[in-house]
Amino acid sequence: MPASNPRAVAKARDLACDVVILDLEDAVAPEAKPDARAAAVAAMASGFGDRERVIRINALATEWGAADLDAMRGAAVDAVLLPKVDGPDDLVAARERLGPEGPALWAMVETCAGLVALPAIAVAMRATRTTLLVAGTNDLALDLRARPGADRWPLVPALSQIVAAARAGGGEALDGVLNAIDDPDRLAAECAQGRALGFDGKTLIHPAQIAAANTAFSLQADEIAEAHAIVAAFADPAAANHGAIKVAGRMVERLHLAAAERVLALAPR
C-alpha cells in the first residue's frame, strides 16, 4: 500500500495479512516521495502487531534509491524490497549500503534482464541476505511484451523460474499481484495456480483479496492428516530399512517424509 496514504497505512494494522509492505515506488508520485519515505519509517516504528514489516524502496538507479536505502538502515523493518532487480550487482550494492547487520533484502524480478540473471541472483542470495523473491508480473509482462489473460500462460515459464531461483538461493517466493480487484473467481484461480507452481504466498493490492489468498496458501486439514500418516508410517520400526513404503494405497519415499515433516512444521499447533 502507498506509504503516502495514512488512512491505508492505519487500516493495515487490523488486516488479516502476514506482511505489510509500504510502497515508496509505483504507488507514490515523484513529488511525494521524500515525505512518503519519512512516513513509512515512522509507521514501521509504531509496529504492525505480529505482521512482518517491509518497505519497497525505489529502484537503485533512480534519484531516490540511495536515499531510500540510507533511511532503511535505522528503520524498524524486517526487510527492504528492491524493485526491478536486474542482476546480482543490485543485491550486492544494496547490501553494502545497508550494511551486514541491516534488514534482510527481498528482490522483485520484473524485468527481462532480471529473468535471464536468475541463476546468478540465486547464487548471490545467501551472501547478500536476500531471503525472498517476488514476481513482478505487471512490469514483467510489459517488458516481455506478453499479453497474459486470466490463465497467465505466457508468464508461467517465468513464474516457475522465479520459484526455482528462490529455492536454489535458500529463500521463499511470492506470486505477483492481481489488479482485477472485483474478480473473485480470477483471484481464486490465480492463488491456486500460484500455490501449484510452488509459491509461498501472493502479493496483494486490496484488503478484499486477503481472505482468498489466506485460504489458498494455508495448509488444509487433509494435507495435515496425510503428513501425520506418512510420518507415523516411517516411524514404525518395520519401515526402518525401507526407502519406500505403502501409505494409504500409494507408495511414498523418504523425500515424501521430508515434505510431510515440513508440512507439520508449518501446521498450526
TrEMBL record:
EC number(s) in its UniProt entry? Answer: 4.1.3.34
Keyword Lyase appears in the UniProt entry: yes
Give binding positions for substrate: 56, 110
Q: Which Gene Ontology BP annotations are present? A: oxaloacetate metabolic process
User: Entry's Pfam families?
Assistant: HpcH_HpaI
Per UniProt, where does Mg(2+) bind?
A: 110, 139
The cofactor required is:
Mg(2+)
Q: Which SUPFAM superfamilies match?
A: Phosphoenolpyruvate/pyruvate domain
Alphabetical keyword list: Lyase, Magnesium, Metal-binding
Gene Ontology molecular function terms on file: citryl-CoA lyase activity; magnesium ion binding
List each copy of the HpcH/HpaI aldolase/citrate lyase domain by range.
Answer: 2-207
Provide the family line. Answer: Belongs to the HpcH/HpaI aldolase family.
Q: What is the designated name of this protein?
A: Citrate lyase subunit beta/citryl-CoA lyase
Q: Which organism is it from?
A: Sphingomonas jinjuensis
